[in-house]
Amino acid sequence: MGPVVERPAEPGTSNAAELELLKRRAAESIDEAAERLGALSRAIWSAPELAYKEHRAHGELTRFFECEPPAASWAVQPHFGLPTAFRAEWAPPESAAGPRALQVAFLCEYDALPALGHACGHNLIAEVGVAAALGLRAALESIAAPPPVKVIVLGTPAEEDGGGKIDLIEAGAFENLDVVFMAHPSQENAAYLPDVAEHDVTVKYYGKASHAAAYPWEGVNALDAAVLAYNNLSVLRQQMKPTWRVHGIIKNGGVKPNIIPSYSELVYYFRAPSMKELQVLTKKAEDCFRAAALATGCTVDIESEAHDYYNVIPNKTLCSAYTENGKKLGMEFISEDAVLNGPSGSQAAQLYTLRTAKALAMTALDVIFKPELLEGIRKEFKCKLQEEQLLNTAA
């Protein structure tokens, strides 16, 4: 443990030097735990699991907190809202009798993609969330009389498919949380990763089977409908906005070449910058699917997935605080307009993973000890949320 810092009178009254000491303690504690954190990340990486089935990763993460010294310092709910979700919570004992604690949360993702594994680096998202929480806790423990704060880690499964966070939101897991932090791997540093609204559909065509050589005229070809739908969407791309994305596969195209397919199935993802634009894109795509059914004589079912993903609302106030802390750690940030992508997960990513965790923990300390910053974050969020609602309801 590092030196004990005399607690500032109340959150927000810390002078700059005291706050920098707390940030240094957070960073040091993350470095001290680097070996254990790296082992956690590698364990998740080595056994990729699909959405809602992340049992091994879930076990690794919950055991990490259950075994984190001192014993039983984290209160762990291992099946929080979903079988592979969890909640780990720590609060200074001295703050229990005080006013409602400020609740600061960090998110962990840990599901993988079929065939590709952790191509999006969700093992690193989990490591960052854990590391940042450890750093914040260590900083708060170094204060003689810490403020009323709860440090929470939420394990959020099924990000690649299904929408586990949406399940948890509906279950009330995010209620009363004041600020929630998460970092996604990228080849570059950025305070904000643009994320668009998404709608997923499964399209099923039903025709009539017949022998393709003996009496093809008796059949109604569901594969033809799928191919026409695929081509319709490809033609539609000419009139799509540059910010729209449509991608899909033919999941089922028949049984044997000499049997006219009576059933075919496609899966498509639609993405757009806002829910309003997404609705326009979805309508155009569904017209393409129905046109293929009409042309071939098939019937069609268009089934939406359980959850739509809303576009992320940026918070420049919070982004500025993160950028300021990141620069202190040597981060160089790219512009908001730059495209961020590329797989992550190698051992070389550890330096950047832990540095990101430090920046998150340091930003959380700013939120705790600068009430004016927290108020600015809340105010901007409310304004942006109202703007988004007006945009999506406008004619």
Task: Explain this structure.
The protein has 395 residues and is α+β, with helices and mostly antiparallel strands. The protein has helices at 16-32, 34-46, 55-66, 122-141, 164-170, 222-236, 275-296, 316-328, 350-369, 371-393, and strands at 75-77, 86-90, 102-108, 149-155, 179-181, 197-206, 245-252, 263-272, 299-304. Helix 8 (316-328) packs across helix 10 (371-393). The longest helix is centred in the last third of the chain and has 23 residues, at 371-393. The radius of gyration is 25 Å and the shape is elongated.
β-strand amount: 5-15%
Number of strands: 9
Oligomer: single chain
The largest pleated sheet is described as:
5 strands, mixed
Span between N and C termini? Answer: 59 Å
Shape: elongated
* Overall pLDDT confidence: 91
What is Rg? 25 Å
Q: How many H/I helical runs?
A: 10
* Low-pLDDT segments: 1-9, 339-344
Q: List the strand order in the largest sheet.
A: 1-2-4-3-5
Q: Strand pairing plus helix content: what structural class?
A: alpha+beta
What series of H and E elements makes up the topology?
HHHEEEHEHEEHEEHEHHH
Percentage of helical residues? 40-55%
